[in-house]
Write a structure and sequence with these properties.
Layout (H helix, E strand, L loop, with lengths): L1 E5 L15 E13 L2 E8 L8 H14 L14 H8 L10 H20 L4 H8 L9 E6 L9 H13 L5 E4 L5 H15 L5 E4 L6 H11 L7 E2 L7 H10 L4 E3 L6 H10 L8 E2 L9 H13 L14 H10 L4 E3 L15 E3 L2 E3 L14 H9 L1
Parallel strand pairs: 4-5, 4-10, 5-6, 6-7, 7-8, 8-9
Antiparallel strand pairs: 1-2, 2-3, 4-12, 11-12
């Protein structure tokens, strides 16, 4: 089952106003009964793309429900997320990795949540075991993503926002650029650097706003600051622009959140000029067919000599926190102040010294998150 949920708030980046955005909340209901209720796997299609109700209800969910149950099970008798993904994608032509990638991602990730709950363990433990890894202990590095454009806020409110993130335990931050004139945005950057105390703790994100000329002009302006990274300067599929940017900008760049397939990532590492031990990959399982495809993306990176420690999934939510811990990635984004009720983490997750630790609640722990827990209950009624 699926329901679209509208995000809270009126925030915008350089290109998109999110006030009308929705997310697909998906549940996979099993026939296992515990405490008088069926065990249910829950997930969503990450943040930044609209809900995918039509694709899920018209194509993917009917395919899965029509399949022989045994065809969707793995060796241990648990539902196999990879088999569910293949079933959901039956008769879909190759290419065109857009909204259907997010629809499939929500469905596939709900299967991971279900399997972890059936094993009564957190999703990160199930993920680590499946891929033959040991989960990260002691928390993972996390950065607070904010600094959006609001119709009624200026630099004083931006300072207050970033000070708030600092005071609750974050020590790395990301803010938006490209939605204001260059001089104004540089003033915004300087205000944030002053609050957090070091430019190398601040990343900036243009959300694909710039053409090549603007991207390189901005790179020149940003170079003296020595920022943490310069994110998605141009269109995410303009690999030539990214390559030219990395040729001219010495600081780290980040991209990948809008790449939805293994082939997209292969093209990025072949043609995008990404530099080993410097640049950041931000692919997001919830937008790209789920964890099965995401793990294959990591395989592409490593086969080309890149380190998974430079993978920081986009999204800022509990799904990716568990994926980072389970797969041993470099760190995680967080939306502590925006994109509720999906953004950020549950109150039970421990944040200290810039690192976050998930709880040991079964699955992704979505039922522990205020606002989201109520929506899950409504979906299942």
């Amino acid at each position: 089952m699926e329901t679209p949920v509208r995000l809270h708030g009126d925030v915008a980046n350089a290109l998109v106003n999110f006030s009308s955005h929705t997310i697909s909340l998906v549940a996979v209901v099993s026939d296992v009964i515990r405490d008088g209720k069926p065990v249910v796997g829950v997930a969503f299609n990450s943040i930044g793309r609209f809900a995918q109700s039509g694709i899920l209800h018209d194509r993917m969910i009917p395919r899965v429900l029509a399949a022989p149950p045994d065809s969707l099970l793995g060796e241990q008798g648990r539902i196999d997320p990879a088999k569910v993904l293949r079933c959901a994608m039956r008769d879909e032509k190759p290419g065109g990795h857009g909204d259907r990638a997010a629809a499939a991602g929500a469905l596939e990730l709900a299967c991971w949540d279900l399997d972890a709950k059936l094993d009564d363990e957190p999703a990160y433990a199930s993920i680590a075991r499946h891929f033959g890894r040991e989960p990260i202990t002691g928390g993972v590095p996390v950065y607070a993503a904010g600094g959006y454009y609001y119709p009624d806020r200026g630099i004083p409110q931006l300072r207050e926002e970033m000070r708030g993130y600092r005071d609750i335990g974050y020590d790395a931050y990301k803010m938006k650029i490209g939605g204001a004139p260059l001089a104004d945005d540089l003033a915004r950057i300087e205000a944030v650097v002053e609050i957090v105390g070091a430019a190398d703790r601040v990343a900036v994100d243009a959300n694909g706003r710039f053409d090549l000329a603007a991207a390189t002009d901005w790179a020149q302006a940003l170079s003296p600051y020595k920022l943490r990274w310069y994110e998605e300067a141009g269109d995410p599929l303009d690999f030539d622009l990214n390559q030219r940017l990395t040729d001219s900008y010495a600081g780290p760049v980040a991209t990948g959140e809008n790449l939805f397939s293994v082939q997209d990532v292969t093209n990025l590492v072949r043609f995008g000029g990404m530099r080993r031990q410097r640049d950041i990959f931000q692919m997001d399982a919830g937008l790209s067919y789920g964890l099965t495809e995401y793990a294959r993306m990591l395989g592409v990176l490593e086969s080309h000599g890149f380190d998974r420690g430079f993978a920081f999934p986009h999204g800022g939510h509990l799904l990716n926190l568990h994926i980072v811990v389970g797969l041993g990635l470099g760190g995680c984004e967080s939306y502590p102040g925006v994109f509720q009720p999906f953004g950020g983490y549950s109150e039970q997750c421990v944040l200290a010294d810039g690192r976050i630790t998930p709880t040991d609640a079964p699955g992704f722990g979505l039922e522990q998150k205020t606002g989201l827990a109520e929506l899950i209950t409504e979906l299942l009624e």
